[in-house]
Design the sequence.
């Protein structure tokens, strides 16, 4: 479980996170959504141990999140392409294997095959969709407790998004692993999600189970999020 206790983070004069408190339980797939600049990517980096809060605390299974602890338990995928462009996907997998003790070459190649990725082509020669597939396969190759994915559907066509959704279902264990993803593509991600948290101006303004949203809000998760923004919601308690 990941717990955030009144977490704040600023970049100079701009406050990216403003007193965020939330609990993300184990064995769930959770969507973190909201408009650009709402703090989603900053919150994900903080949970991954890549940033430190200016105030408050982030905990993982009751322990303060550090880069060392996060490196052992969290597989983080950035939105940007951070890989060496002259690598092939297979070379990328070998690099991951040299960096992470929980990386499985067999699992990564199975994920790549499932996603229809040719592991012998250099990343710089791949389309954006296939680079997205390579990032997902490399991330899923780890046997982490938590997978933190920053905009895994960004800029990808519907066919690629569908393949990634199926890959996340097939190559993660819902009994013991947690997926937290930021996304603008709520319509595509919603069928996958157990919970949805909505961010606005550096705060979580709602955090509900997806099945409750569908039962209580006509139009489903996308309409629910739109209503939250139109109402100018203030932060509320989270469901943990």
Sequence:
């Amino acid at each position: 479980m990941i717990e955030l206790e009144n977490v704040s983070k600023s970049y100079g004069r701009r406050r990216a996170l403003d007193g965020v408190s939330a609990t993300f339980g184990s064995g769930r797939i959770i969507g973190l959504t909201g408009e650009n600049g709402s703090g989603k990517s900053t919150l994900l980096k903080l949970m991954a141990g890549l940033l430190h809060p200016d105030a408050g605390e982030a905990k993982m299974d009751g322990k303060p999140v550090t880069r060392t602890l996060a490196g052992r338990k969290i597989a983080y995928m950035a939105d940007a392409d951070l890989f060496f462009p002259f690598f092939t996907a297979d070379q990328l997998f070998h690099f991951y294997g040299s960096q992470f003790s929980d990386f499985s070459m067999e699992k990564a190649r199975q994920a790549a095959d499932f996603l229809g990725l040719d592991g012998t082509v250099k990343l710089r020669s791949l389309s954006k969709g296939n680079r997205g597939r390579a990032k997902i396969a490399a991330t899923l190759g780890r046997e982490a407790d938590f997978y933190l994915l920053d905009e895994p559907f960004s800029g990808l066509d519907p066919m690629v998004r569908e393949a990634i959704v199926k890959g996340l279902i097939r190559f993660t264990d819902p009994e013991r692993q947690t997926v937290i993803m930021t996304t603008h593509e709520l319509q595509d991600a919603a069928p996958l999600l157990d919970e949805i948290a909505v961010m606005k101006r550096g705060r979580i303004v709602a955090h509900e189970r997806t099945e409750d949203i569908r039962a209580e809000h006509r139009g489903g998760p996308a309409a629910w999020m739109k209503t939250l923004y139109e109402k100018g919601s203030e932060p509320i308690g989270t469901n943990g």
Q: What stands out?
A: The longest helix spans residues 128-140. Strands lie at 2-11, 14-24, 29-34, 55-60, 63-64, 74-77, 146-150, 178-182, 195-200, 203-209.
